[in-house]
Design brief:
Layout lengths: L4 E3 L6 E5 L9 H11 L5 E4 L2 H9 L8 H13 L7 E6 L1 H13 L3 E5 L24 E6 L19 E6 L16 H19 L1
Parallel strand pairs: 2-3, 2-4, 4-5, 5-6, 6-7
Antiparallel strand pairs: 1-3
């Protein structure tokens, strides 16, 4: 059974978030984003994929499960939250990618991707956007302008669906952290990212 970590209101639409490939559902990034969104009166639920759950149990690092297993786990978590049309799904990096892969079939209200992995770092030719070209579910992608998985120079050139909205975090990396010389702070980017998600969820509702 999927264990959910829930904070915030039970009003709808609620947000269901999955973690990225390397960090759990209660990583500093996931905590910071979830707390900011919940403070706006939006319910946030988080869950872990099975490989991460096992790591929590025995401390052994594992790579992510196969995509089909990740998809099945996300669908299982979604089923615990009630009608899918009252839920926005998403996640950090890989978690957001999996959410975007199941969204149309699941019938959810929307998708939120926090740092989408458009391609592996240093390999811009290996794009992971085939399903994004045909996506029908309203989708928000919040991306750092210098994210090695897809920069502000690269991403606007990709043929993604018109339902995909992009919001850029100034000088942010894959976790929205800017360089000191930019004059921008991580707090500012996290606040901006959370506000973009809050506004998007309210539109979905």
């Amino acid at each position: 059974m999927v264990q959910l970590l829930e904070i915030g209101s039970r009003s709808t639409p609620r947000l269901l978030l999955a973690h990225g490939a390397g960090a759990p559902m209660d990583s500093p990034f996931m905590n910071a984003i979830s707390e900011r969104i919940a403070a706006a009166g939006i319910g946030v639920a988080r869950f872990e994929f099975e490989y991460m759950e096992k790591r929590r149990e025995d401390g052994k690092r594992r790579g992510p499960d196969r995509p089909d297993k990740l998809i099945a786990r996300f669908e299982e978590a979604l089923q615990t939250l009630g009608p899918p049309e009252e839920v926005v799904i998403g996640g950090k990096s890989m978690g957001g990618r999996i959410a975007s892969m199941i969204a149309d079939d699941a019938g959810v209200a929307g998708v939120v991707c926090l740092g989408y992995p458009f391609h592996p770092p240093g390999k811009p030719g290996r794009l992971r956007i085939a399903h994004l070209e045909k996506l029908r579910t309203p989708t928000l992608i919040v991306q750092g302008t210098r994210d090695p998985f897809g920069t502000e120079e690269e991403v606007p050139l990709y043929p993604v669906s018109p339902v995909v909205e992009l919001v850029w975090m100034s000088d942010g990396n894959h976790s929205f952290e800017p360089r000191k010389k930019s004059g921008r702070t991580l707090d500012e980017n996290l606040n901006a990212a959370a506000q973009a998600v809050i506004d998007f969820i309210r539109r979905c509702g």
